[in-house]
């Protein structure tokens, strides 16, 4: 039944006729509330879908597919196009919420007979319902049950994408156009983890007791590994021990024993012309256990090696050494001059830490809580990690000795020191022009200073 008041069409508060059937006021109220509850459930479905789908880790996808879990294949298809997935969820959620608000407003206008009151009550009432039961509660549940819920809702979500296909395609296109115009990346829906976030997770794991300090250090070194170059891990030319190609086997064996190395580079003329490697096991076997009475020349025991540029990535270098079954490679600069050598042990130490042999000293030794002694060739990254400080890294240097030379701008004498961020960094032991050991004092009171371009 209808009536006009001031030119406005109103529904009768008592009954309404629909498709020839007269519906009572109470029945309309119950039907309206039931419809709102259904829409609220759908709103919760789409809200929880957003959290579950984008919190589900990509590395688990193949695993759940291989395990044959129900919904896993559909889940993989949905996550293969994250932009389309996000648009589907947003279109469905917004349609549901708008429909719920409109139906609530019409129902209250019918029951109260006052449109302004109906708009006010519907706005705040639906907002409260959506926040509590359509957003907060379902999203909390999805966070706690990400994998199981993502698998469970994948098929219904795929069905929703099919039902809403025209709108999904339209808004998918429009959002891409808008993102292109505004300069947006249109990838905010992608799930990814940055290196900094992984480092934070590792440090949090140590604080919470999930990881030991050694495990944390190893994981952090692993993250650094593929950004490290050969120059940073090599034994410098100054510390290299080699042997002339024309030397006798006895001389080669004696050189190995005196240097404490199992293998040596063999050169012709100088270290800039390394022609291969010899191993002490081959030398001893041929010298003392050979069936041939005549001593073989050293050149007959030389094994080939690689010459790699100092900028070679150690991740690639390790793979190459494994493929070629090499234990030692020679590092050269842009002019072909020998800069140093890298062994498999050097590369392994980048991940597991320093492997000390015999009387070899620790690279970093704490004298007390305020002072530490560091070997000059220790990498700046390792110094910062071990001492908890923030010395800068530069393209011109990788080691603590290089840092001192760079700051001083000249060669330094034994006992000279520089100051940085309140730290006293002294050249404790200098051999000719080489810094052997560095003493760092002021660790207890150390506080990193903000970046200053002038400094």
Overall description:
The protein is an alpha+beta fold. It is 50% helix and 17% strand. It has helices spanning 25-55, 61-66, 72-79, 82-112, 115-144, 146-163, 165-182, 195-207, 213-225, 230-233, 249-259, 280-288, 314-324, 344-352, 380-387, 400-408, and strands at 2-5, 8-11, 15-18, 21-24, 235-236, 243-244, 263-268, 270-279, 307-309, 328-332, 338-343, 364-366, 371-375, 417-420, 423-431, 434-441. A 5-stranded antiparallel β-sheet has the order 12-13-16-15-14, with helices on one face. Strand 3 (15-18) and strand 4 (21-24) form a beta hairpin. Helix 4 (82-112) runs antiparallel to helix 5 (115-144) and helix 8 (195-207) packs antiparallel against helix 9 (213-225). The longest helix is centred in the first third of the chain and has 31 residues, at 25-55. The N and C termini lie far apart (84 Å). 22% of the residues are buried.
Describe this structure in a few short sentences.
The chain is α+β, with helices and mostly antiparallel strands and 455 residues long. The protein is 50% helix and 17% strand.
Key traits:
alpha+beta, disordered N terminus, four-stranded mixed β-sheet, 16 strands, single chain
Ends apart, CA distance between termini: 84 Å
Largest pleated sheet? 5 strands, antiparallel
Helices and strands: which structural class?
alpha+beta
The helix content, as a percent range, equals 40-55%
Q: Mean pLDDT across all residues, rounded?
A: 81
Write out the strand line-up for the largest beta sheet, numbering strands in chain order.
12-13-16-15-14
Uncertain regions spanning at least 5 consecutive residues: 1-16
**What is the number of strand segments?**
16
């Amino acid at each position: 039944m209808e009536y006009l008041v001031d030119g406005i069409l109103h529904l009768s508060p008592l009954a309404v006729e629909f498709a020839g059937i007269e519906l009572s006021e109470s029945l309309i109220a119950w039907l309206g509330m039931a419809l709102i509850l259904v829409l609220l459930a759908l709103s919760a479905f789409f809200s929880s879908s957003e959290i579950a789908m984008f919190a589900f880790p990509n590395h688990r996808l193949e695993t759940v597919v291989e395990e044959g879990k129900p919904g896993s294949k559909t889940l993989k298809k949905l996550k293969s196009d994250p932009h389309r997935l996000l648009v589907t969820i947003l279109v469905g959620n917004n349609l549901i919420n708008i429909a719920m608000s409109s139906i609530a407003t019409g129902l209250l206008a019918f029951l109260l007979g006052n449109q302004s009151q109906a708009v006010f009550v519907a706005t705040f009432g639906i907002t409260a319902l959506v926040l509590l039961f359509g957003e907060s509660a379902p999203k909390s549940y999805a966070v706690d049950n990400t994998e199981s819920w993502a698998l469970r809702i994948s098929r219904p979500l795929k069905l929703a994408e099919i039902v809403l296909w025209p709108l999904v395609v339209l808004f998918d296109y429009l959002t891409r156009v808008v993102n292109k115009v505004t300069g947006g990346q249109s990838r905010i829906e992608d799930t990814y983890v940055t290196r900094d976030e992984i480092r934070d997770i590792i440090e949090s794991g140590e604080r919470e007791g999930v990881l030991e300090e050694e495990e944390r250090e190893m994981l952090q070194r692993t993250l650094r590994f593929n950004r490290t170059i050969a120059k940073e891990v090599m034994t410098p030319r100054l510390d290299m021990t080699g042997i002339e190609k024309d030397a006798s086997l006895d001389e080669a064996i004696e050189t190995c024993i005196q240097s404490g190395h199992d293998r040596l580079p063999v050169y012709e003329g100088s270290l800039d012309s390394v022609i291969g490697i010899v191993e002490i096991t081959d030398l001893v076997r041929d010298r003392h256990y050979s069936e041939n009475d005549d001593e073989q020349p050293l050149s007959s025991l030389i094994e080939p090696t690689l010459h790699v540029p100092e900028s070679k990535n150690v991740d690639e270098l390790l793979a190459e050494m494994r493929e070629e079954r090499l234990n030692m490679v020679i590092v050269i600069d842009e002019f072909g001059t020998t800069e140093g050598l890298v062994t498999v042990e050097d590369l392994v130490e980048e991940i597991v830490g320093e492997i000390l042999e015999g009387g070899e000293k620790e690279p970093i030794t704490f004298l007390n809580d305020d002072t530490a002694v560091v070997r000059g060739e220790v990498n700046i990254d390792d110094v910062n990690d071990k001492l908890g400080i923030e010395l800068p890294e530069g393209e011109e240097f990788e080691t603590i000795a290089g840092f001192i030379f760079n700051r001083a701008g000249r060669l330094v004498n034994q006992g000279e020191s520089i100051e940085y961020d309140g730290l006293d960094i002294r050249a404790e032991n200098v051999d000719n022009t080489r810094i052997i050991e560095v003493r760092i004092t002021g660790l207890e009171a150390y506080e990193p200073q903000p970046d200053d371009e002038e400094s």
